[in-house]
Each structure stands twice: as structure tokens, then as C-alpha cells.
Design goal:
Blueprint lengths: L5 E6 L9 E4 L3 H8 L8 E5 L3 E8 L10 E6 L7 E8 L3 H11 L7 H6 L9 E3 L17 E3 L7 H27 L5 E5 L6 H11 L2 E5 L10 E5 L5 H18 L2 H6 L1
Parallel strand pairs: 3-9, 9-10
Antiparallel strand pairs: 1-2, 3-4, 4-6, 5-6, 7-8, 10-11
Length: about 260
């Protein structure tokens, strides 16, 4: 049984809260979808934290994924039909920045990653696939392991920092494309929230590699207002976008099933 996300749902029985009426209930990522005002089919939001959680509204129809995503109830307003969503989870995004800080000591604080990445004009051919514990959506390969590909003597700390940020954007595109294939809807605007969205370089690259507008809300953590704070529009040349993403996909294929290789 699906209960409405808003409206009186019952009375709390716990002694400390006895007698208080429960007037609303919504899961974490579903709340972000509502907070970002993604009420129409095809509207999507991405929460950038330790990992990424991307949800797309599919309307009143639950779409059974054939491309590595989950089908979930999004919300139900009182007196209205339930709305559903496709969900894609990415394991390692902000956690990769923390890894650069804690394991390699390349940066002292997470917010330094953007400053370091801006010391170079591009990734220098370096790609980082952060499959530390396998690849989540849309690959679902638990034998994948992290790799850094494309290193040359030209590569430096800045290129590695840029590859770290770009890995988040590439993984997001992987999930967006899977959602569009499953739903038949096209994501026109990606609404974003979470700790990493303060990184303007990442947000611009996300817009570029998606070829979609990226919108950051004024309330970045709670996503309670849905009002735009900043918007990034794609400006990357199509040939560059294609080359970067094709090389990312090539790097991903190198990471898949790596654990089997280790055992032979």
C-alpha cells in the first residue's frame, strides 16, 4: 500500500512524542526530487555527495528498467495518484576527492581540488575510473576495480585533480543516458544539489559533457526551495565532447572484471 507523502498519516505512539500527528513522509532522495520541483516526467535531479544519487520522474507509470536502474515510488500528494521515478546510484564521487586528500595527500582540504584542477586547461589525456568497490549503475559489476589511465610524463597533479572531477560528470552521464533509454523521455535540465555542487568547474563540465543545462538551487543541501541559484549551459565543441566520453567508456572497459584478472 502506498501512503500519501503529505496529509495526516497517523499518531506517533512513542512515549516521548505521544499524541503528535505525523503529517508527511518522504525518503531522502525522493525528498530532494520534490524539493527540486521535478514534478513532470523527464525532469531529473542529481545529489552529489560521497556518491551520487540521480532520480528521474517517470510520472504515474512505474518503468521497469532494462539498463541497470532501479524503479522506485517518488511521491504521492494527497488525493492524487502516486508518481514513480527511475533511480541510479554511483558509489564513488565526493569520496574520490576525499581519497585524494587522505590517501595520497595531494590536497589538504576537499575544496582545494577545484583550485588544483584549474591549474591545467584539460585532463591531459588522464582518466580516473573510481571503481574502488565495483561499478554501480548502470554497470553493476562488483569485480571492477579503480584505474588511472592515459598517464604520460606530461601528466601532473593538476591533470589528476581534473580527472577526479571529470569522473563524477562522466558517471552521471552514464546514468542519464540509461534513464533516457528506459523512460523514452529526454532530460532537458539536470537539477543538482549536495556538497560537490559548490564546485563551479565540475558543474560547467557536467553541463558540457551532458550537453544539458545544469541548475543549482539556492538551498544546496536540503533542496527545500527549488529556486535557481546558478545555471550552467553547455559550451563544449561536439567533437571534443564525443572524444572525451568515448575515451571514458574505453577506460571503464579496462576496469570491468579486473578482480578476476587478479586471481589468475
Amino acid at each position: 500500500m502506498i501512503c500519501a507523502s503529505s496529509g495526516m498519516l497517523g499518531e506517533i505512539r512513542h512515549p516521548a512524542l505521544a499524541g503528535i500527528q505525523l503529517g508527511g513522509i518522504l525518503g531522502d532522495q525522493q525528498a530532494a526530487l520534490v524539493g527540486q520541483v521535478c514534478f513532470q516526467p523527464g525532469e531529473a535531479k542529481n545529489t552529489y555527495g560521497t556518491g551520487c544519487f540521480l532520480l528521474m520522474n517517470t510520472g504515474e507509470r512505474p518503468v521497469q528498467s532494462k539498463h541497470g536502474l532501479l524503479t522506485t515510488v517518488a511521491y504521492q500528494m494527497a488525493g492524487e495518484p502516486a508518481c514513480y521515478a527511475l533511480e541510479g546510484s554511483i558509489a564513488i564521487t565526493g569520496a574520490l576527492v576525499q581519497w585524494m586528500r587522505d590517501n595520497l595527500g595531494i590536497i589538504e582540504a576537499s575544496d582545494q581540488i577545484e583550485v588544483l584542477a584549474r591549474t591545467v586547461d584539460d585532463n591531459g589525456g588522464v582518466y580516473f575510473v573510481p571503481a574502488f568497490s565495483g561499478m554501480y549503475a548502470p554497470y553493476w559489476n562488483d569485480r571492477a576495480r579503480g584505474i588511472i589511465a592515459g598517464l604520460t610524463r606530461y601528466a601532473n597533479r593538476g591533470h589528476l585533480a581534473r580527472a577526479v572531477l571529470e569522473a563524477t560528470a562522466f558517471q552521471t552521464r552514464d546514468v542519464v543516458e540509461a534513464m533516457e533509454k528506459d523512460s523514452g523521455d529526454s532530460v532537458q535540465t539536470l537539477r543538482v544539489d549536495g556538497g560537490m555542487v559548490t564546485n563551479d568547474l565540475l558543474m560547467q563540465f557536467q553541463a558540457d559533457i551532458l550537453k544539458r543545462t545544469v541548475v543549482r538551487p539556492r538551498t544546496r543541501e536540503t533542496t527545500a526551495l527549488g529556486a535557481a541559484d546558478c545555471t550552467w549551459s553547455p559550451s563544449m565543441d561536439a567533437s571534443v565532447r564525443r572524444r572525451l566520453y568515448d575515451t571514458w567508456k574505453k577506460a571503464v572497459t579496462r576496469s570491468l572484471d579486473w578482480a578476476d584478472t587478479e586471481r589468475t
